[in-house]
Amino acid sequence: ELLQDTFEDNFGEITENRELPLHQPYQPNIGQITIRSSDAEKTCKFYSEVLGMKLLCTEIPGNRYPFTLYFFAYTTDEPPNADLSAVENRAWTYQRPYCQIEVQCPHNLPADHSFQTSALGGTRLGH
Question: Model pTM?
Answer without folding.
Answer: 0.69
